[in-house]
Hints:
single chain; alpha/beta; D-Maltodextrin-Binding Protein, domain 2; Alpha-Beta Plaits; 2 domains; 5-stranded mixed sheet; 12 helices; 30% helix
Amino acid sequence: xxxxxxxSPAEMSLWYGARRLAAxxxxxxxxxxxxxxxxxxxxxxxxxxxxxxxxxGASIAPYSLSADVFxxxxxxxxxxxxxxxxxxxxxxxxxxxxxxxxxDVRVEREALLRIRHNLITVPGVTIDQIDRVFSHPVALAQCxxxxxxxxxxxxxxxxxxxxxxxxxxxxxxxxxGAIASRGAAAFYGAQILEASIEDNPENxxxxxxxxxxxxxxxxPEANKISIAFSVENRPGTLVAAxxxxxxxxxxxxxxxxxxxQGRPWEYVFYVDCQIRNAAEGSAAVAALGEHCAMVKxxxxxxxxxxxxxxxxx
Length: 313
């Protein structure tokens, strides 16, 4: 008999209905001295941790959907948003590229967060009691070796890592575990049964702090720029655009393509470039403008460095 068969419909509906309980849709935690920042996910999530790293003392406003995060920023309900843009193992968060292009926002800062996954349970539970584990699909995929070593634990996808801990504690489910951050365990009063269960310790997520374009400030020490552009669908246009950047001596560190909705086989390209000064950033935007149908500067900011504790192992 499978784990799902052992659970009553009422019990499983509590788990799978949890998205409707998510975060109070923009409710904030206790008043803080920093700005009001929207995140996608629950309190205690990696995005929550990144938001506090980017703005100490921030007042966090959690939302279920990334689109709702940007809508809140547009409407002035929050001063900023913190979004994951890329994971070193799972790759880019493609939806967020689309949202950065769609909305009148600018990237003001970036941060790198070391991702450590933990098996989290209700206090007092032992590992032999756990027969199912809930978490976001990406987190489950990054803990395959641990889960394979415990075949009695069935992996079940959930909408959010921290949300799985929240629901675990609300249900006081002594036969379930969650995979999430140490911060999630602390926030909801859960216990960490097994720490650092991720397959690969070189697991980092890059986060952006985004503000409305009219209110964003440009760091005079910025050494990185993010740009979105599109080219005409004819031979050599993309090569010409990239050659324009190369001619400036600008170091291209990332390129991503996204399809243009409603226009099959046409794409928007997103690039990150290291720049030596503000003039080089402006020159890069101008150079692309000579070859591209559309150019949008997404932001200039200081390139994030790996956390010191991660470099030391």
